[in-house]
Amino acid sequence: MRESEFEVLQECVRKPAHWEMLTLLHELQYGDDNTTEIAVLQCSCMATRGDGDTLRRIGVLPLVIGLLKDGTGNQKLWAAEVLVTLASHSDDNCVAITRAGAISPLVALLRSGTDMHKQEVAYALGNLAANNEGNRGKIAREGAIPPMVAFVKDGTDVQTQWAVYALRFLSLSNEENRVLIAQEGAAPSLNLAHNVSNREIITQNGAIAPLIELLRSGTAMLKQRAAFALGNLACDSDSVSDFDDAIVPLVELVRARSDTQKEHAAYTLGNLASNNDDRRDEIGRRGAIPPSHRTTYFSHGGRDR
């Protein structure tokens, strides 16, 4: 189903009456497993429709968070989905979710849940961290960073995507979190590499090779993010031979259809060439930039003007 079709159907769903909301609360609290699962699924649908503030005001959050702790596998999955949506729509919801005690069970599910649980939880934690400095500290203190890093290194594509999303926010304006992320070896996939000490830690931890592998075999989104991360790391790359293997896949990305992939790959190639004549010649031989544009292109770090 196309997104436009989904939005049309979404608008066809009427706003629930007050008595229906009370019934929903009762089913969440007292229903059997099947009834409770349907109720939390309804909460997810209502949150997606835009009724998140109503759900928060009638007291759904403690019940949904309780399902994260003690629900069935499906109940936990839908509960995490409810929090993903609520946290993405409202800063007030993020504050309420945290106050209701969601972070600890979310992190527990991040460690021990199914693959689907883990990717939803990573997404939820990313939303909770996006615009709230206090939440970033709480999420880190609960121990979310090590399992997030594990997803970046060896998770499914979706787990990697949402773990990188969450870790980017966890690193913002919080030096303690940045240090934790770097120590865990996650920083290669983040925009943390503008910091010189982080670049050194990232390179010393062997991050370049797996990032180059993502350029070759990752999804379109992972290729895009890997190219940008390598571009940040390449600022100090003149004497690091590991980057040489990145040239061919980066040139291929420059020729890709995606404008963002092209921009990130060009940015990285520009940085790789800026301090290394041999690399500049190799990039030129690979045909990434027409000969008449190379001097201008490389002098601007991959931006042809």
Automatic annotation (TrEMBL):
Alphabetical list of PROSITE patterns matching this protein: ARM_REPEAT (PS50176)
Ranges: ARM repeats: 206-239
Organism field: Phytophthora infestans (strain T30-4) (Potato late blight agent)
One Pfam family linked to the record: Arm
Name assigned to this protein: Uncharacterized protein
Ranges of compositional bias, category Basic and acidic residues: 276-285
Chain residue ranges for the region called Disordered: 272-305
InterPro entries in the record: ARM-like, ARM-type_fold, Armadillo
